[in-house]
Design a protein that fits this description.
This protein is an all-alpha fold.
C-alpha cells in the first residue's frame, strides 16, 4: 500500500482560491455597507438562514422585524421605505452572508479531505486549523457587529465594523502567506519569516486600514464635501487643510477615534506616509521579486487615486466599493512582498 504523500502545490492553489473569495466578500461587504443593507436581516441563523424569504408572507414577516429596529424607525421609515426597497437591501446582506458560508465550506471541506488523504505537509496542520478558526471567528464578529445596530443605534458600531474588516484582511494575509510557503515547499525552498522591516510596514498599513474602517463606519467620507476637481474637497476639507468641525469636548483620544472630521483627516494624510513606506518596500523587492514589487506599486497607486475619486464623487457607490476592493488587493500584495523579503537562503 502506497504511503500518503504531502501535496503542497495543491494546497497552495486551494488557499489562493479561498483568498480570492475573501477579496470578493470584502467588495460585497463594501456594497452592503454603502447601501445601508447590513441591518436588514435581524436574526443570525447560521444554517437555516441560507434561505431567503420564499413567499410574500415571509417577506412581510422579515420586513416587520426590520421595522422594529432604530434604523427603520428613525431613518428609512420616515424616508418612505417600501417592501420593494427592503427587498433590495435584504438581497445584499443575504448575498454577503451566503458568500461567507461558501467560503467556510470552501475551506473546511477541502481541509478535511487533504487531512484524511495525508496530503498536508508536516508543520502545516496547526496553521490551517488556525485559519479555519479565524473564519469561524469572523462569522461571530459579523453578528456581534450587526447586533450593535439592532437596539440602540441606527448604524452598527464603527469599532465593531473595523474589527470585522481587519480580521477579514488579516485572514487574507494569512492565506496568501501560507499558500506562498506551501508553494516554496513544493520547490524545495524554506519557509519565509517576518523581518523587522516587514513588521514595520504591516503596522503602518494596519493603522491606515483601521482609520479607513472608522471612516467607513462613521460615513466620514462625506464630511469633506463633494465635486469633481473641487480643491475645497481635496486636498482641502471644506476649504481648509485642517478641518474646522472637530468636536474636542471629550478629549483628543475620543476625537481621534470618534470624530468623523478628524478620522477622515488622519486617513487621507497618513496614506502618504504609508505610500512612502511602500515605495521603500517595493524598491527592496525589485531585485528579489519584481512582480511583487510591481503589484505593490500598482495597488497603492490605484488605491490613492480611488480614494481621491471617492471623495470628489461624494462617495459614489461603485468608486467607494472599488476603493475597498483594491485595499484588499493591497493587503495581498504586501503579504506577497513581505514573504519574498522574508525568504531565507536554503
Amino acid at each position: 500500500m502506497t504511503a500518503p504523500s504531502p501535496r503542497p502545490l495543491a494546497l497552495a492553489r486551494w488557499l489562493f482560491a479561498v483568498a480570492a473569495l475573501v477579496v470578493f466578500i470584502v467588495a460585497v461587504g463594501g456594497i452592503t455597507r454603502l447601501t445601508e443593507s447590513g441591518l436588514s436581516i435581524t436574526e443570525w441563523k447560521p444554517v437555516s438562514g441560507i434561505l431567503p424569504p420564499l413567499n410574500e408572507a415571509q417577506w412581510e414577516k422579515a420586513f416587520d422585524d426590520y421595522k422594529q429596529i432604530p434604523q427603520y424607525i428613525e431613518v428609512t421609515g420616515p424616508a418612505g421605505m417600501t417592501l420593494a426597497d427592503f427587498k433590495f437591501i435584504f438581497f445584499w446582506e443575504w448575498v454577503h452572508r451566503v458568500i461567507a458560508r461558501i467560503i467556510g465550506l470552501a475551506f473546511a471541506i477541502p481541509l478535511a479531505w487533504f487531512w484524511i488523504k495525508g496530503a498536508i505537509p508536516k508543520g502545516y496542520h496547526g496553521r490551517l486549523v488556525a485559519l479555519l478558526a479565524l473564519g469561524g471567528l469572523q462569522g461571530t464578529i459579523g453578528w456581534w457587529m450587526v447586533s450593535s445596530g439592532l437596539s440602540n443605534d441606527i448604524r452598527v458600531s464603527h469599532f465593531r465594523l473595523a474589527t470585522h474588516l481587519l480580521v477579514a484582511l488579516f485572514t487574507l494575509a494569512g492565506l496568501i502567506w501560507t499558500a506562498l510557503d506551501l508553494r516554496a515547499l513544493a520547490r524545495g525552498e524554506p519557509r519565509a519569516r517576518l523581518t523587522g522591516f516587514t513588521v514595520f510596514v504591516s503596522l503602518a498599513l494596519l493603522v491606515q486600514l483601521f482609520f479607513g474602517a472608522l471612516v467607513a463606519g462613521m460615513r466620514a467620507g462625506y464630511v469633506a464635501g463633494a465635486g469633481w476637481f473641487n480643491w475645497d474637497v481635496w486636498p482641502l476639507m471644506q476649504g481648509s487643510f485642517f478641518p474646522a468641525g472637530i468636536d474636542w469636548a471629550m478629549g483628543q483620544v475620543h476625537a481621534l477615534l470618534n470624530d468623523p472630521f478628524l478620522t477622515h483627516f488622519v486617513h487621507r494624510w497618513w496614506a502618504w506616509g504609508v505610500v512612502a513606506i511602500l515605495v521603500v518596500m517595493a524598491r527592496k523587492l525589485r531585485p528579489i521579486d519584481r512582480r511583487a514589487s510591481i503589484a505593490i506599486h500598482a495597488t497603492f497607486g490605484t488605491q490613492v487615486l480611488l480614494g481621491i475619486a471617492t471623495v470628489y464623487s461624494g462617495v459614489e457607490l461603485w468608486i467607494a466599493v472599488a476603493h475597498q476592493l483594491v485595499g484588499a488587493l493591497l493587503v495581498a500584495s504586501v503579504a506577497w512582498g513581505a514573504h519574498a523579503l522574508g525568504r531565507r537562503p536554503a
